[in-house]
Design a protein that fits this description.
Elements: H1 2-49, H2 57-65, H3 74-109, H4 121-136, H5 141-163, H6 171-194, H7 197-206, H8 218-244, H9 248-253, H10 258-280, H11 286-298, H12 302-326, H13 335-351, H14 364-367, H15 373-378, E1 389-394, E2 397-402, H16 403-425, H17 433-440, H18 446-481, H19 493-508, H20 516-532, H21 539-563, H22 566-576, H23 585-612, H24 616-621, H25 626-648, H26 654-666, H27 673-693, H28 702-718
Antiparallel strand pairs: 1-2
Helix pairs in contact: 1-3, 1-12, 3-8, 3-10, 3-11, 3-12, 4-5, 4-6, 4-7, 5-6, 5-10, 6-28, 8-10, 11-12, 11-13, 12-13, 13-21, 16-18, 16-27, 17-18, 18-23, 18-25, 18-26, 18-27, 19-20, 19-21, 19-25, 20-21, 20-25, 21-22, 23-25, 26-27, 27-28
Length: about 725
């Protein structure tokens, strides 16, 4: 009796509160939508009123409404009808498409950091444009459109095939396949660009992303059906995609097919992104920003997210295009740079807000202790089996030697020696192996001695120093983060160092100053660390802020390249691709000095890194201060990566691959500090050798070689059968 009287008053209010909450949420979404629609209209009117031609808002309004014979004016028809109106409508359509695509991608990957470039669409479109320019002499906007769209569709189709080969197209496979293929396509694009100044001159302005080339409605009407199809597919897939948020098993129980849903989403993202890239070039960061903001406003309702993301994308791109026309008159700034410059601080502000937890931005480090199964096992070092150690005693001194690690170190050292010999021998000149050895020791033909000692050996030493520094930096960051995807790029180190080196060359006139790379890397890490609130305990914050920092630094790099003469920009672009061309002993000396100081420090902290493979509480109970060790490792990795960038530019995948290969050889019980250095040095020297001899008379930068080969390597390492325990 008591239960029957007390129960209903407790249950009834809860039943009444749920609809009220939904109504309140719906009102908030409607209010936000109305505000965004108003903002988009205002920005559209501003876009029609601002620009070259000295046509004000009154004349534009007369033309749009057909008053006072405005449409009979040839000047108004040209400025408004052929330039401003098509440009504004293109900005609205492309912005909405990229915003919607970003929102879809974030939902299907369950990752609020997902961006439209993850499916390799941007890289495929860029490769298509470069191929059209290089092989067929394409130079018109419509030609760019066709080749960009074809490359984007091809890239997305390959990603879908790779991701669905095994595992049913899971979010992880989709993202990793897109990232790996995008890297490979980017490397092939660089191969075509670095050896053709004309191709690079056309490409360097297109790749920035701009609406300056939009004239008339021809391009927009050509791809309007593609955009419309993408929007329709996005709306149709919204409801089944929402079911995937409950998990694949529950989604199957509700009658959905997760694999098919992901394929449909990928098709929608491809249609929207490919058409957008074909129209205005690759514009990064917009899809991530629009999806992020839409989710912050609407909550978990996917349909509302898609609508808001489309409005946000349209407004941001239109407003950025207006700013691009006025900030550097009489020239135009790249619209993608404008988006990065004000979008990154906005994203950082959201990341630091209290809505982080409600947006699913949980702290991976805090959750590790609560996870079981494979995830928990992946963060713990495996249990040792029989002893693999040997104690070597000499008098009162003793040394503990691990057999497998020692054998691996000797094998890697032999590989490194072979790589050095091959690099000194290989080249375009006809020189036998015996002549090469003689030249190394200063005997034999004077030309041979000059070629080997002056050019090849100096370049080899620079490559050895840079590769060793990158390998050690990758080992430290991967062990520190307990994640094989964690490389110095995670903290914006490479992009920050690259931007600093280019700025030093632009402002001071001296290129290759040894201090510029480490200074830029340190500045990037300090910003990321300060804004994210520290490393280790706020994993997603670090990722988001690092991504924002990379976007800002990349924007600075692209602006510097676009402002320089063609000859200067071409040579700098080769360096930003990662190159040892012209590097010598003098360049390598600062890095060698840095290695002499930093390597012993890394060996000292390696013992503590072994303990950090456990969780923080266990490490603290063993007498290790996790925060202090993280700080030391971070500073070591930053210094090493910055010095390496100063030598040869941002060489990709070496910091990722070196610890993985060294760890496979040495075994899982030790942090492969020395092995990572040896592998990194060998990889850079071998890649440089391949770049010098692969094409007759043409040199491929070392960074391009590592990027082309690094994509398949990333797939092999991370999409294998045991990937779940390695990521």
């Amino acid at each position: 009796m008591t239960v029957s009287q007390v129960g209903p008053p407790e249950v009834q209010p809860a039943a009444q509160q749920a609809p009220a909450g939904r109504v309140h949420g719906s009102r908030a979404v409607l209010t936000a939508s109305a505000a965004l629609v108003l903002a988009v209209l205002v920005l559209s009117a501003l876009s029609l009123s601002v620009g070259a031609g000295e046509v004000g808002a009154g004349d534009v309004l007369d033309y749009v409404l057909g008053r006072h014979g405005a449409r009979d004016s040839s000047r108004l028809s040209l400025v408004v009808g052929d330039l401003r109106l098509p440009r504004t409508l293109t900005a609205l359509a492309v912005g909405a498409a990229l915003g919607t695509a970003g929102c879809l991608l974030q939902a299907v990957t369950r990752n609020p950091l997902a961006e439209t470039g993850l499916l390799g669409v941007n890289a495929g479109a860029s490769l298509g444009v470069v191929a059209g320019i290089a092989f067929l002499g394409v130079h018109s906007g419509y030609g760019y459109l066709l080749w960009a769209f074809g490359g984007a569709v091809l890239a997305s189709a390959l990603v879908l095939l790779i991701a669905n080969r095994r595992g049913g197209g899971s979010p992880m496979r989709l993202v990793l396949a897109g990232s790996a293929l995008g890297a490979t396509f980017g490397g092939i694009t660089s191969v075509l660009i670095v050896n053709s100044a004309e191709t690079y001159d056309r490409f360097r302005f297109w790749v920035l992303g701009s609406l300056a080339g939009v004239e008339g409605f021809t391009k927009l009407t050509s791809l309007a059906p593609v955009l419309a199809a993408g929007f329709v597919v996005a709306l149709l897939v919204a409801r089944p995609l929402s079911a995937l948020a409950l998990g694949d098993d529950l989604a199957k129980g509700l009658g959905h097919r997760p694999g098919a849903i992901r394929v449909v989403v990928a098709v929608a993202v491809t249609l929207l992104t490919a058409a957008s890239v074909a129209l205005v070039g690759p514009i990064s960061f917009l899809g991530l920003l629009a999806g992020f903001l839409a989710r912050a406003v609407s909550g978990p309702r996917l349909t509302a997210q898609l609508v808001l993301a489309g409005l946000i994308g349209a407004g941001v791109l239109t407003g950025s295009d207006v700013l691009a026309r006025v900030v550097s008159r009489p020239f135009e700034a790249p619209v993608s740079v404008i988006i990065a410059l004000f979008g990154a601080p906005v994203l950082i502000g959201i990341v630091r807000s209290r809505r982080m937890a409600s947006m699913g931005m949980t702290d991976p480090a805090a959750d590790e202790g609560h996870k079981g199964g494979r995830a928990g096992a992946a963060s713990r070092p495996p249990r040792p089996g029989r002893s693999d150690s040997l104690v070597v005693r000499t008098g009162a001194l003793s040394l503990l030697v691990h057999r497998r690690a020692a054998v691996a170190a000797f094998a890697l050292a032999a590989l490194l020696v072979g790589a050095v010999v091959l690099s000194a021998y290989a080249g375009q000149s006809e020189m036998s192996l015996s002549r090469t050895f003689s030249a190394v020791f200063g005997s034999g033909d004077r030309f041979d001695v000059l070629l080997v000692q002056k050019f090849r050996l100096g370049r080899i030493v620079a490559g050895l120093a840079a590769g060793a520094a990158l390998g050690l930096a990758g080992c430290l960051t991967q062990t520190l983060a307990r994640n094989r995807l964690a490389t110095p790029e995670l903290l914006g180190v490479n992009d920050g160092a690259t931007a600093a080196v280019l700025l030093s060359a632009t402002l001071g006139g001296t290129f290759g100053a040894w201090w510029a790379g480490p200074l830029g890397a340190l500045a990037a890490v300090l910003v990321v660390t300060a804004v994210s609130g520290g490393l280790g305990q706020r994993g997603y914050r670090v990722l988001v802020v690092g991504l924002a920092m990379s976007a800002l630094a990349s924007a600075v790099t692209q602006v510097v390249l676009s402002r320089r003469s063609l000859n200067s920009a071409s040579s700098l672009y080769v360096w930003t691709s990662g190159s040892l061309n012209g590097r010598s002993y003098a360049v390598a000396v600062p890095v060698l000095i840095g290695l002499a100081v930093l390597v012993p420090a890394a060996l000292v902290v390696a013992r503590h890194l072994n303990v950090l493979r456990f969780d923080d509480s266990t490490a603290a109970s063993l007498g290790v201060a996790p925060g202090r060790v993280r700080l030391v490792c971070m500073l070591l990795a930053v210094g090493l990566a910055g010095l390496a960038v100063g030598i040869c530019g941002p060489v990709g995948f070496v910091a990722l691959a070196s610890p993985v290969i060294a760890g496979r050889l040495a075994g899982p019980l030790r942090v492969p500090v020395l092995g990572s250095m040896l592998v990194g040095a060998a990889l850079v020297v071998l890649a440089d050798t391949v770049g010098r001899v692969a094409l007759d008379g043409v040199e491929i930068p070392v960074g391009v070689v590592t990027t082309v080969l690094g994509g398949p390597f990333l797939l092999w390492v991370l999409l294998g059968r045991s990937a779940a325990t390695r990521v």
